[in-house]
Every structure is written in C-alpha cells, then in structure tokens.
C-alpha cells in the first residue's frame, strides 16, 4: 500500500480511484446510481417492514441487534438480495447504519434515488430523535454490549464474503464509503461515533483483503518466475499467459482496495483521530494499531506511526491507553523493531514519562511497553530512563508496582541488592516490604529460595572470594524477612491494596506449603544466624521477627525441641547483650508468641522466660538499692546497671504480665527519689514511668477479667493516685523527655480511668474513676501551649541545624501530644472551655495540626453545640485581648493581625454547616456572648468614645450569616440594649464595627442601612443615586435580594450607603443645628442630589445603569447556559495547524473531550427561571463585580 500522504486529496464523500482501465466499466456517479432502479421486493417504498403480528425481524438492524442468527447467514442473505436488486439491498444497509446511530428516521427509496448523501444526512439529522442522549453504542447493559460486537462482526464478515466480487463492482463500496464519510463529518455525535466505528472496522477488513491480495500476488509472481525460467521445451506458454493475466487482475484489485482504503483514511481517519469525543479518538487509534500489526509492510512506517505518537499526548486516559496497547502489539514482535527505530527515538521520552501518568491504568501499560522496548533493544533506553521506571516498585498502587517489578526483574537481577543498599536509613518506611511485594509475581521462585539466602549469610569469608559487605548483609536479612512475611501472610504490606482479600483454594494451599517450608528451614537456620549476628542490633532485630511466621506445631510434630532450646538460648544471649529498645521488644514479642497456650511447647518456653525475668528482677532490685544508697555519689556504672536492667524489664512488661514480681515498687522509689533530689538521670526516669504505667495496666486487666474484691480496688486506686501525682510533678521537670513521657502517661491514664470505665455494666469499678481537678487541667493545657504550639526554629536544639528527618519526627511527636490532650476534651474529661486555647491556633498552625483541631471541633460540637459555640467565641476573645495588649486600645483594623482574627472567625462560621435550624441556639448564644464582650469595658476617656472592645463586633459579624431572619431581629434588639442614644447617631470611623455589625443583623443581613461620613461627598451622592434608582430599573430584584443567601459562601464586602432602605425617622430627621443646604440635607435629600448632578449627568447615570443591568442579565444567562450542553458539538478541536500536512515535523496535537450533548428538551428543562429569586444566587459575586465596574465609571465621570 502506498503512502497515504503521497496521493492528492480526494473530495470528501467520494472514495478515490485511479482512472478505469479498458477492461473495466466506468464507475457510476452518485447521480447515476438511481438509474435502473425499477423493482422492489415487497417492501413499502423500498423499506423493510415488521410483520403485522410481531413476527421475526426483517431489517438488518433488528437482526444484528437480537443476534439470534449467525453473522455468516445474515451476510449471505444480504448478498443474495444485493444480487437480485442492489439498490434495495444498499437501501437496507444505509438504513442499518442510520438506525444503529439511534435515529428513528428512515431513508426512503425516493430519497435514495433523487438525493445526494449530504441531503440525506441533513434530512436524517432533522428527524433525529432527541428525547434521549443515548444511542446504541453508548447504551449500558449486556444486550447493547453484544450489539456492538455483532455490529463490528457484521461489517467484517460482509467484506470477507464480498472480497472476491461485489466490492469490485464500483458501486457498493463507493456508496457505503461515501455515506460513512458524510456521517463521520456530522455534528451529531451519534452519527459521527457510529460511522467512525463502522468505517474503521471496514478499513480493518479491507486491510485483511489487501494482505491476502498481496500474498496471492507474491505466490503468482513466484509461479510465473518459476515457469518462465524453465527451458523452452518444458515451458507452458498458456500457463504463463494465465499467470500473467491473474497477476494483472490481482494488481487491479489491489489498486482498487488501496483506493478504498485511501478514501477511508483521508476522508475519515485523519479527521476523526482528533475528534472532540474521546471514544471516537480511541476507536481510530485502536484500529490503526491493528492495521500496522496486520499489514506491517504497508502501514508500519513513520507516516502512520506519527498519529499514534501524537495521540500519546491526549488529555483523556482512555485514548492514551489505546495508544500504549497498540504499541505493545507492535513491540512484541522482534522482527518489527527496525521499522520502529525512528519512532522509538522520537517518542521514547514521552513513553517513559507516561510511567508516572495520573491514570494508573495508563501508567501500568506504559511500564509494560517500556519493558518490551528494553527487551527488544538494550540500547533503546538510557540508565536514567531505567532508574526512573524501577523506582516505581515502591509505588503505593500495586498494579504499577508489580509492572515495575517485572521491568526490574527483566532488566537486571543484580540490581536487587543495589536497591536495598539504602534501606537502613529508610527502614521506617519499610521499603523492602514494598520491593518484595512488587517482585513477588514475576520472581517468586527466586525470592523464596531461602536456602540460598541463608547460605550467603552463613558463608564464612574465604581468601580470594568476594563476600557480602555489612550493608549488603543487612539488606539481604531484611529482604529475607520480608519474603517470609509475604509467603506466610499472602497479602500486600500495609498501604498497598484495599485490604486482605479472601484467598482462593489454590492460593491457600500455596500459603500453607510455603509456611511449612520456611518453618522447617529456619527452625534449624535461625539459631545459627542469631549466633553469628548477635552483636549487630539491626540484624538481630530483623532476624527475631522470623519466629512469628512459624508453624509452631512443627517443633513437637518433628521432634525438634533441641532446636527450640537452641533458639531460646540465643534469645537469652541477645537480651543480656543488648539494651536497644527495638531489639528488646523483638525478644519480648518472640517469647510472647512462643508462650501461646495453644502449643505444647508453651511450658518449656515459660520456664525459660521465668528464669530470665527472675534474674533480671533480682539484679534490678539490687542495683536500685545501691543507687539510692549512694544517691548523688553514684557513678556511671551504678546508673548503667539500673538503666540497662530497667530497659529490659520495661520491654518485657509491655507484652508480659510481670505483676507478681512487683516492679512498681522499685520504679516508684526511683521516681520519688528523683523528684525529691532532682538528680535522677532522665533515661531512668523515662523508663521508670513507662514500666510503672505497664504495671498499672496489667493490674487493671486482672481486675476487669475477674471478680475483684474491695481491697483490690482500693489498692489499685492508691497505686494509680500516687502515680498520677508523680506524673503531675514530673511536668515541671527540667528534662523535656521526662515531661513529655509524664504528659502522655497522664493523658492515657486519665482516659482509661475516666467515667467511661464503668460503662458496659462495670459499675463495680466506680472507685477507680479519676476526674482531674482544675489545677491538673491547667497544667496539662499549659504544657500543650508551651511544647506543641511552637515554631520549628524555637525548639531547643542548642543552635544545631536539624535535618529533614528529625524535623518530621519532632512534628510527629508534637502531633501525638496534641492529640492526646484533645482526646481528653472530646470525651469530656477536661472541661471544654480549655479547647479555646487550642482553637485559636487553628489558622496559624493549620498545616501542622489543622486536621486534629478540626476533628476536635467537630466532636465537641456533637457533644454540646451551645458550649462548643461559647468555646469558639472565647477563643476569638482571647486573640482579641492579646491584640489589645500588643497594640493598645487604638487598633489598626486594616492590620494583618485583625484580618487574621476575622479569617479565623470566618472559618469557624463555615463549620456550622448549612442547616441553620440545628445550629440556631448555638449561633444565637455565640452572638450574645460576643455582644457582651464588646460592651464589657467602657472607654475611660468618656461615653462619647467607643468601648474598648467595640472592634470585636467586626469579628462577630462573620457569624451573622448563620442567623436565621427571626434571630437576627432578636440579636439586634439585644444589641440595642447596650447602645446609648448617642451611639446610634455616631458615624465616625471608630464606630464602623458597630455600624457594620448592625447592618449585618438587619433584614437580609447583606444590605447597607447606615451611612458613613468618611470619604468624598461626590462618592456619597453616587452611592445614593445608584442604590436609590437601581430598583426603578431592575424592578423588585434589589428589594428581594435580602432573602437570597448562600450558606457557607464567602461574604462579599458590603457597600455602605448614605440612604437607609427602612423608614427610621430618628436617623432621617435633619439636624436642627445644621444650616439649610448643608451636607446633612444634601445626603438625605435626593432632589438636592439630582439638582446638583445636573440633567446631563443624570441621563448618563441612568444609561450606564441600564447597560449594567442588561450586562448582569446577559452574564447570568450566559453562566446558566454554560452548564447546558449543545445539541451539536464541534467536530474538530485542534488548536494547532492542519495535521494533514504530511511534510510537517512531528508535533504534539491535543484535543479536548466534551461530554455527551443533551437534547433541546433537556436544555429547556435545565434553563432557570430568571424571575425566580432562587436563580439569582447563581453567581452573585459576578453581579456585584459588574455593579462595582459601573460605579467606577460613574466616579471617573463625576471626578
């Protein structure tokens, strides 16, 4: 097939063709196609009809839709009808395409005879049923999914059955291609979508025909060459003539097919591959991929590949996905790589970047494509490209990670250890677990080769041989533990996947087999590994995780008790050698697992554990006595002996009940001594606090599980009370770790021993309930304020710069402290007003603690709405008081500090939600407290000066939108009780907060009812004229505006007017001290304003107002109609040059996807009533913006 760009463009709607040869009849033109149509087949007007009694379907659409008949028989019947009367058969085929588009119209025989395709399509467009936006290709359900399959199969079978005769009659294919070309250019989405799918499937079928013709041509040519090369006596001239004639006929057929394909490609594909609809673009890209794979000699070249390359930049993931899958089919065939070399070099960077696509499905396919490229040519990708891909094994999305694992495994197996070399510094993120999960499916057998891993770890260094470095050994041990976990649990690590899924029977069997295999191996290998690496805390901590995945029955079933004794011996040695917390916790957990009562080895392990605890307890008691006796004279050895033993006991007390050893007594003695003497090392104090805490919890567990006596309750209460007192005293310790530990334990114990302890029928535990007094609550709150709400630079690090990891860890610790205290507030253990000091930091520390504070606010509101509202206003009052202390009584209301308080109030207001009825009482109480605070202190300079806290009303006005109209009047009445007569008449700037707050409480809360004397007189007059005459232009809309509210929306800054909307005689009465014609008369006398402006100015003002009103209506209508979608969509949506220019450079052409269009009826239903007040809130900010623009024009005109 020749290059589609080498031929001249054919007229759309007419497939291109070479000049007819002498032995072929000339092709009929569209005007000639009706000639000779004189007979029908019992069809009304040449259109197939249903049987009267609901018999079998007789149209192609119905047959294909039902799918009851095989496509082979359906096509054979159509071919027979075509042989009898080709016009009627083509008419049935045309109506098939029309009906498949969802159009109820029908093409009649008269239309087929006398009208061009464009006229027929226009007629069908007019008759298109717009009651539904769906059409067969987009309808959901299995029936329509099957219809799409049948539709594509019908076209494929039709061309296959007609490939030897009918498609060369210069009539059928011309008619079909012309019709599909016209439909594909329609603005009706259904026509365009259906015809494009049909044309692409038709093209695919023609490509198959062209491929068969090419094969036959090659075979004929070989036969001809073989016959011609024979000697003259054996050569058959007749056979040569037949072969020559056959070759000529095949070449003519090939040219005919090429003309058809060129017509489809140029008339449909080059326009539709950048259609506005993503589904249409996806169809084109999917089919061109089929053509290039099926007939690579003709299509696999840069002239066609560039369309796929350009579409890699498509905005819709569906289209990008089709591009990648089409390319995968090509790169799978190694023989095609030479033809793809230029394309690979040009678009390699784009494909690699798509591995980070926001659509996970696209990213997965991009990684698989990169894998195929690398397998075909190792030089195709640079090392940097490969690194960008195999780092995705750590992705949280499992399919992406698995695909990256396949790439990594196929790229370089040795890179495993290299990837793990950096794991120790990132062990908190468990990178190895994610890496193993990514590689599990592609290299499971390799990862489960535990014998090989153990051999590498136990191998002794031999001179001349390369051995693993210390870092590689750590990485391999971590890798081994992760593979054991993956095999034993058979589910991804935390954070990857949606949770534990139910395993199939096969997966369950594999899991059991793997668990038995690893148990049998590591029962013998683990003691040896611990013996070799017992000095390395990091390696030992990882190795001690292995027993938790054992099938412990193997010990007794396999008579392997000696290996258990060896393991217990090694664990004991590890406990005696290390004091690192992670190692000791791993040993404690291992003992806990081995001591499970369900296993027969429990007694043997329990004896070993008890012996170990006895020794450590005796050592601890002895070292404590020595330390307390020596007191300040204790040396480092004494301190180390106490600290090391206490760390071991604390780690074991976490997982084991050690109450019978009474560790609390010695720990309490240490703490009391430290408080009294003030010289206890901080690590000993921290460990003693933690160990005492565990002791109390284990005592509580024993009491709750049994039937405790009164003496037991009294004894535990005494212990808890004394420990709480010690913790409270530790809050004033000079060492920060001690204070933080004491704070966390206080919060935990107050939560545990709160009033919730007696819930669930446990009233007998009432003596154990503790309620913190006000002193303790204040100390806890002060600790939070001093240690949580601090800047990062304020932390006591002695000036040393912290790296990013330490900063994150410190932030994490502070968040834990805040969360612990907030839980006490939420569960009503600490009084809710204490939360005011927390809420006031919401904006300043939003990035660090915003989620915690917001959740606390939400939970406290559920507990008590009114008390929560009082707490919110209290937090704002505290911030306001702090501001007064800093700036004095003369606040700068434009400062950032005041704006910050107002913004915090606005955020608080948003948390009340949209249901004003539910929050009615709470909001009213908030306003009441706010008003009382604003008028609490009178100005010492006299009553003519505003109260000191009056500016707080400006903050309080942020909550006015949350009041219902009735409550606004009530709050306004309450406000007037605090106002004197002189206050209501004051208009100076210092009284603006009162004016603004009163305006927000008047009807609607968003109109201006008070005047301000500051500013230009001309501007005042302008406001008066504008607000006074606008209702004359717009009717009653402005008067209804007070009822329009958008709950929760940002409040637009209010405009101040010199005219009151309501009749208030006290405020409109002229000042007796003012002269006639003074500013007071001027402000309150519209006639004087009008005369001052002059007739010409008034006319200009009214004209501008009219224009503005029209703009507002047009703008609002435009915004409303933007949401309604057009019936017909733009077909071409390319902002670049014409992509049909085949000589241009490769470029990225983007298209924009539009949603399915709605019909006229839906649009009419969606268009709002512009006289309905509810429609006016669509975009009030735009309306106000236009008003401000008009006002600015007036100001410019007047000034």
TrEMBL record:
Any one GO biological process: sister chromatid cohesion
Classification via InterPro entries: ARM-type_fold, Cohesin_Scc3/SA, HEAT_SCC3-SA, SCD, STAG
PROSITE patterns according to UniProt: SCD
Domain SCD as annotated: residue spans: 269-354
A GO term from the CC aspect: cohesin complex
UniProt KW keywords: Cell cycle, Cell division, Chromosome, Chromosome partition, Coiled coil, Nucleus
Name this polypeptide is given: Cohesin subunit SA
Organism name: Lates calcarifer
Name of the gene encoding the protein in the UniProt record: STAG1
């Amino acid at each position: 097939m020749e290059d589609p760009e080498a031929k001249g463009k054919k007229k759309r709607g007419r497939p291109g063709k070479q000049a007819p040869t002498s032995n072929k009849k000339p092709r009929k033109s569209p005007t000639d196609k009706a000639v000779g149509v004189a007979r029908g087949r019992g069809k009304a007007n040449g259109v197939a009809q249903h049987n009267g009694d609901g018999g079998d379907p007789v149209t192609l659409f119905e047959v294909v839709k039902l799918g009851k008949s095989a496509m082979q028989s359906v096509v054979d019947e159509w071919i027979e009808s075509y042989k009898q009367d080709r016009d009627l058969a083509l008419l049935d085929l045309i109506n098939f395409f029309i009906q498949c588009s969802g159009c109820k119209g029908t093409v009649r025989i008269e239309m087929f005879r006398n009208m061009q395709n464009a006229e027929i399509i226009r007629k069908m467009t007019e008759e298109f049923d717009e009651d539904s936006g769906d059409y067969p290709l987009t309808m959901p359900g299995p029936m329509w999914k099957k219809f799409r399959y049948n539709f594509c199969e019908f076209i494929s079978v039709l061309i296959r059955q007609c490939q030897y005769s009918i498609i060369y009659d210069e009539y059928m294919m011309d008619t079909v291609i012309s019709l599909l070309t016209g439909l594909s250019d329609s603005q009706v989405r259904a026509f365009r979508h259906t015809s494009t799918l049909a044309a692409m499937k038709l093209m695919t079928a023609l490509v198959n025909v062209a491929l068969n013709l090419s094969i036959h041509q090659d075979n004929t040519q070989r036969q001809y060459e073989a016959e011609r090369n024979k000697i003259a006596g054996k050569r058959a001239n007749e056979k040569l003539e037949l072969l020559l004639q056959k070759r000529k006929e095949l070449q003519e057929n090939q040219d005919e097919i090429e003309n058809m394909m060129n017509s489809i490609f140029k008339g449909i594909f080059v326009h539709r591959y950048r259609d506005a609809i993503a589904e249409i673009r996806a169809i084109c890209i999917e089919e061109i991929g089929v053509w290039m794979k099926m007939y690579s000699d003709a299509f696999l070249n840069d002239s066609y590949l560039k369309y796929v390359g350009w579409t890699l930049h498509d905005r819709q993931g569906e289209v990008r996905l089709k591009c990648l899958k089409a390319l995968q089919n090509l790169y799978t065939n190694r023989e095609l790589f030479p033809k793809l070399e230029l394309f690979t070099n040009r678009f390699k960077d784009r494909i690699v970047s798509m591995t980070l696509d926001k659509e996970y499905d696209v990213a997965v396919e991009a990684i698989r494509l990169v894998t195929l490229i690398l397998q075909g040519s190792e030089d195709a990708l640079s090392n940097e490209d490969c690194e960008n891909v195999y780092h995705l094994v750590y992705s949280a999305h499992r399919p992406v990670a698995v695909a990256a694992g396949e790439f990594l495994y196929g790229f370089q197996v040795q890179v495993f250890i290299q990837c793990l070399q950096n794991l120790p510094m990132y062990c908190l993120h468990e990178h190895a677990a994610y890496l193993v999960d990514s590689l599990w499916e592609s290299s499971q057998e390799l990862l489960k080769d535990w014998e090989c891993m153990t051999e590498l770890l136990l191998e002794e260094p031999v001179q001349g041989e390369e051995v693993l470095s210390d870092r590689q050994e750590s990485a391999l041990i971590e890798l081994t533990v992760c593979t054991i976990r993956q095999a034993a649990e058979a589910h991804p690590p935390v954070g990857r996947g949606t949770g534990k899924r139910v395993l199939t029977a096969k997966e369950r069997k594999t899991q059991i087999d793997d668990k038995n295999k690893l148990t049998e191996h590591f029962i013998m290998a683990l003691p040896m590994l611990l013996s070799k690496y017992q000095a390395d805390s990091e390696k030992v901590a990882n190795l001690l995780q292995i027993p938790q995945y054992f099938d412990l029955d193997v010990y007794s079933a396999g008579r392997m008790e000696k290996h258990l004794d060896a393991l217990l011996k090694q664990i004991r040695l590890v406990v005696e050698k290390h004091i690192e917390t992670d190692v000791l916790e791993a040993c404690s957990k291992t003992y806990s697992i081995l001591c499970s009562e369900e296993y027969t080895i429990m007694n043997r392990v329990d004896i070993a554990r008890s012996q170990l605890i006895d020794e450590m307890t005796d050592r601890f008691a002895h070292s404590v006595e020595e330390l307390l006796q020596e007191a300040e004279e204790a040396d480092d050895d004494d301190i180390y002996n106490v600290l090391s033993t206490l760390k071991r006991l604390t780690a074991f007390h976490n997982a084991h009940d050690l109450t019978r050893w009474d560790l609390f007594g010695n720990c309490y003695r240490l703490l009391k001594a430290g408080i009294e003497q003030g010289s206890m090392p901080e690590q000993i104090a921290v460990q003693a606090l933690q160990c005492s805490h565990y002791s109390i919890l284990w005592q509580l567990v024993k009491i709750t599980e049994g039937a405790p006596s009164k003496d037991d309750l009294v004894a535990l209460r005494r212990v808890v009370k004394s420990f709480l007192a010690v913790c409270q005293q530790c809050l004033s310790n000079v060492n920060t770790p001690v204070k933080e530990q004491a704070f966390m334990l206080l919060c935990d114990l107050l939560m545990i021993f709160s009033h919730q302890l007696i819930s669930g029928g446990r009233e007998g535990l009432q003596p154990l309930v503790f309620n913190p007094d006000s002193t303790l609550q204040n100390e806890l709150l002060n600790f939070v304020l001093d240690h949580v709400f601090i800047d990062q630079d304020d932390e006591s690090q002695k000036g040393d710069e912290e790296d990013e990891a330490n900063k994150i860890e410190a932030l994490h610790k502070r968040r834990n402290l805040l969360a612990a205290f907030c839980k006490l507030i939420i569960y009503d253990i600490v009084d809710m007003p204490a939360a005011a000091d927390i809420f006031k930091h919401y904006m300043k520390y939003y990035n660090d603690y915003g989620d915690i504070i917001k959740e606390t606010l939400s939970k406290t509101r559920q507990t008590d709405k009114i008390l929560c509202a009082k707490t919110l206003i209290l937090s704002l009052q505290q911030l306001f008081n702090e501001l007064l202390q800093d700036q004095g009584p003369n606040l700068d209301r434009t400062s950032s500090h005041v704006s910050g308080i107002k913004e915090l109030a606005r955020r608080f207001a948003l948390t009340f939600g949209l249901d004003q009825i539910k929050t009615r009482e709470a909001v009213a109480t908030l306003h009441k407290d706010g008003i009382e605070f604003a008028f609490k202190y009178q100005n010492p300079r006299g009553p003519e000066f505003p109260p000191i806290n009056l500016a707080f009303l400006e903050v309080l006005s942020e909550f006015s939108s949350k009041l219902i109209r009735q409550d606004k009047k009530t709050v306004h009445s309450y406000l007037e009780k605090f106002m004197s007569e002189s206050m209501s008449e004051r208009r100076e700037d210092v009284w603006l907060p009162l004016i603004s707050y009163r305006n927000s409480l008047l009807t609607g809360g968003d109109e201006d009812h008070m005047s301000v004397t500051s500013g230009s007189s001309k501007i005042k007059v302008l406001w008066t004229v504008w607000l006074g005459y606008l209702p004359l232009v717009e009717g009653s809309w402005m008067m209804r505006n007070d009822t329009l509210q958008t709950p929760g929306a940002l409040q637009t800054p209010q405009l101040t007017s010199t005219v009151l909307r309501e009749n208030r005689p006290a405020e409109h009465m002229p000042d007796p001290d003012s002269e006639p014609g003074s500013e007071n008369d001027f402000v309150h006398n519209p006639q004087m304003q009008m005369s001052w402006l002059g007739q010409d100015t008034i006319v200009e003002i009214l004209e501008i107002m009219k224009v503005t009103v029209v703009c507002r209506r047009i703008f609002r209508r435009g915004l409303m109609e933007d949401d309604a979608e057009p019936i017909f969509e733009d077909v071409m949506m390319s902002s670049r040059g014409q992509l049909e220019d085949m000589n241009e450079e490769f470029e990225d052409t983007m298209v924009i996807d539009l949603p399915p269009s709605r019909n006229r009826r839906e649009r009419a239903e969606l268009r709002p009533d512009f006289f309905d007040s509810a429609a006016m809130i669509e975009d009030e900010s735009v309306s106000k913006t236009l008003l401000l623009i008009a006002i600015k024009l007036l100001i410019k005109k007047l000034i």
